[in-house]
Amino acid sequence: MNGQVSTQADVYSYGVLLLELFTGRRPTDDVFKDGLTLQKHVEGAFTEGAQVTGIADPSLFSDGEEEGEDNSDLVVGRHASERMTRCLESVLMVGLCCAKELPRERITIKDAVNRIETIKRLLLTTKIQSVQTTTLTFPQHKRVIGASSSPCDTALHGRVVPKQEHKQRLKRLDAIVSHPATAYRFRRDMTSYRITLRVAASESLVLSVAMELPRVLFISQYLLLCLNSLLLLCHSATVDQPSGSETDRTALLAVRAAITDDPRGIMNSWNNTLQFCQWPGVACDDPNHRERVTTLALESRSLRGVVSPSIGNLTYLGYLRLSNNNFYGGIPPEISRLARLKDFNLSYNSLSGTIPVSLSLCTNLLGIDFTGNLISGNIPARLGFLLKLLVLNLGLLDLSYNSLSGDIPPLLGRVVPLQYLVLNNNNLTGSLPNSLGNLASLIYLDLSSNSLSGSIPPSITNLSSLQVLDLSSNNLEGRIPEEIGRLTSLEFFKVSVNGLSGNVPPSLYNISSLQTLRMAYNQMSGTLAPDIGDTLSNLRLLDMASNRFVGQIPLSVANATLLRHIDLSRNNFSGRIPANLGNLPYLMQLSLGRNRLDARDALDWEFVSSLANCSLLKELRLAMNNLSGALPASVANLSTQLSTITLGRNQISGSFPSGIKNLVNLVTLAMNENLFTGSIPDFLGELADLGSLVLYGNKFSGNIPASLGNLTALNELILFDNYLEGSIPVSLGKCQGLNTLDLAGNHLSGSIPMEVFSIESLSNYLDLSSNYLNGTLPTEVGRLRNTPFLSVSDNRLSGEIPTSLGDCQVLQFLNLSNNFFQGSIPTSLSNLKGLEKLDLSSNDLSGSFPDFLAGLPFLKLLNLSFNDLDGEVPVDKIFSNSSQFSVVGNHKLCGGISSLHLPACSTHTSKKNRALILKVTLPIVVLILLFALFITCFYARKHKKHSLPDELTSDAPTKLSYLELMKATDDFSAENLIGVGSYGSVYRGVLDDGKTLVAIKVLNLVQRGAFKAFVAECEALGNIRHRNLLKILTTCASVDLRGNEFRAIVFDYIPNGSLESWLHPDTDQKLYSKRLGLLQRLDIAIHVAAALDYLHDHCETPIIHCDLKPSNVLLDGNMTARVGDFGLARHLSNATNRYLSSSSAIKGSIGYMAPGKPTKKKLFSKVCSLLMHLLGTYKRKWF
Predict the structure, then answer these.
(1) 240 part of the active site
(2) Fold entry, domain 263-302+308-345+349-383
(3) 1001 is in an annotated binding site
(4) pLDDT tens digits for 298-350?
(5) CATH of segment(s) 402-526
(6) Which of these, 413, 414, 410, lies nearest to 430 by C-alpha position?
């Protein structure tokens, strides 16, 4: 039976996973050594007097309020109820029955599903029914529970409580109610006008109490116990508890211990040398409690670590400021103990998780600032109970897929004293609550960069104290409220990037305090008020771009003399540009592009002379208007600080303005698509900061100035469609920062200087087409390793095509057409794996037809027409579609698809030649065949054929290309990396539709066994569909841009990650940021078992997973478990005995893999035993 696999191996792995799910311990934890295994650890909890709750995951007994699961009916304080205990006992028993060492002793996966579903059903009922108990026997210790033929039949039954233990539980019950912690809970409940009796005991205990005590006696006893609790609380406060100062000192030391990196050594002085009130960042300022900490301020100290829960013990703390550090993990819920806390600032760290709901208990809070973190989830509505709050700043800088979501809680409108409400850069949805209008003290409201919808509520205009209102970058629509003018204190009004429409409300122009008015990228219409500059005289910034405004630009704009930025671009303004703009002494930016503004004569161009008075002007954007005539000479008088001039797509004529040379700080000069004539002046080479020179589409003539080679900062030189002549300056090779060089459509002549091809920074394109260039194409062209677009078409180039072109592996578009190239097409072009378009037409190329081009995976267009190629045209790949290639004008070609109408290839050979060929080739062919047969037989046993299974080639979804996956993952960036496994990496990606979020598993084919894992996973998931199995969307079998083999599988994206990350969070996730409740764990156990049951018993051919473990179980948005990673999966033949297995056949993960059968090879056995002992994982008889 060696080499055989079995479904019982999966049952064993499931049993181990079940035990880990409810104990929180991995089978490979260091504690399991010296013969102790996870199974024995659990078995030990069933011994006489032991408690199963003692080995359960501690997080099961925590309040689930902040994790979204209410376990209040299952938990009393920190003690498990009897129902919960019974549930844990039953589930762990199922796990033990699955994880038996011998396969025949294990239950089936179907039995496991049924039993756990029954356990969940019983848990949710009023009480667990009594059932027949049985005997359970474990190695080295026995526990009598009842009588049964099979130990695993007890998995659903509770155990009989011995009389002695019954008495002990009665004592514990009294202790629970009398303990100071319980008394504190009672006092807290009394404070909130709630008295709750929550006693969880076994069924027998509840029944005995109910039967033996009259109701009056029971109530009296309870009241006495409550009184006793209060007395014990007082006593413990005066006698048993440590002093307040010692409590604070201990808490501070715990804070220091949680800091893992202190580069400035701030915490070094937190020692016994100084009294803790003198430690840096600590203050004790309460005059009535001079040894109690009132302030903990460690902002901007470069500290790294987690926020210690012990901070909750600093009960006199009023100011907690940890901003601008590197704290990670979650915000500890223990903060809720700080009843005196006023200022809570954790801004600009790397904190994650959710905002604790219990924060609402800090009722004295005046300010909350969590800006610049990674906090997710909803904004707790209970923050509306912080009635003293003045500042609520939850604005976050970059949350990617982890932003705050949900609606803005209407309860925030209760916090009347609130002055600052900052929720920008999140993913908040819904409409703006009307209750925000109740925040009469609000000064600053920033809700920008969210996904809010609906209209702006008129109640916003009740905020008479509001100074800043920022609603930009949302999905708001409708009109701006007419009553907006009631915000008489408003200084900043920003509603850009929304869907607002209608005219600007007239009342808005009455807010004389306005300094910033941003309405860009909306659908606003109408005209601007003629007196806008008079009424809004304090304006510093006016941004009305990308709307539908019409009419003239009001002359009164120049009366708002404090204006620094004016952007009215992308509208329908017409008429003259106001000539009085020079009255704006602080003007730095003037953007009027994409309008219908006119300038025909000198009078219309007077605004240029006026702008000479604006000595701070840096940007002048006038492109895409109706400006015509000559540019006035006064352009020379413009501010020397001017860095950007854009005049493109107008009808400006005349020669190049000489005054430009005075603008020594120019970075961008765009004069494209005008009517300029004359030569390009040499003085441009003196503008040392010039980075972009765009002069295309004019009538410039003469030579390209050699002085342009002095512009070392130049990154864009676009001169196409002019009348330039002469040769290409060799000096351009010195512009090593160029990413775009376009000289096409001119009258350039001479050879192409090799220096041009030394510009390795050309990462956009190089276009020298449609000129009169001659000579050969230099071999240095192979140095363009970063250039995706290269065209030298329509010139007079000759010679052979350089083989070095094959080194340009980033090329996507190559056009050498309409030249005089000769010789054959170099085979090195087959290295251009990313090539999409290749045009070699209208040359003098000869030789055999380049059938190797069929191997270019992304080639979409191929033009080889009008050359002198010969040979047979293939009929596969790109040559199977006549719309994608052309071979017209090659009269020596034959074959090909029928639509080419080429003659059939001749097969006639003379008898003499045929005999000669046979004599020479037949022995060689025979030897080759024999050698190939030998190699095939040799490797057949070790390697499967490298092809996708039929399940994924017959009816699979449309496959994705390598480029599509590269785009979806942002070039497989580290930001999108989800995880790394044995055979590859998994990336998060967004497909071209922008909506489909997927997980992309990229195989590392260098890793031995990776391809087998790929095939196994495809075979396993190809035709199976189940809600608890990871769904495969498609595959990618291609090559990357460097020609290496590429394999990937595309799955549904599972947002909640793996079960591993929930059971064992990383240190930067904090335990309470990821927590599973009891019911969730039961559901996960059922889901996983259901998936295995489907694989084992409901597939056409049973499938064995072979590697079941928490990291291979994923949780979707509804916390539904999905089993994935079938890289080791095996198909089981119908004849296979399901109860026989061998570890030699099943490769899995240590700790989860079923034990194998004994081997006769003693040396191998000893080595394996030694290795297993060192790893400390398997704690049973090995091999």
Answers:
(1) no
(2) 3.80.10
(3) yes
(4) 999 999 999 999 999 999 999 999 999 999 999 999 999 999 999 999 988 99
(5) 3.80.10.10
(6) 410
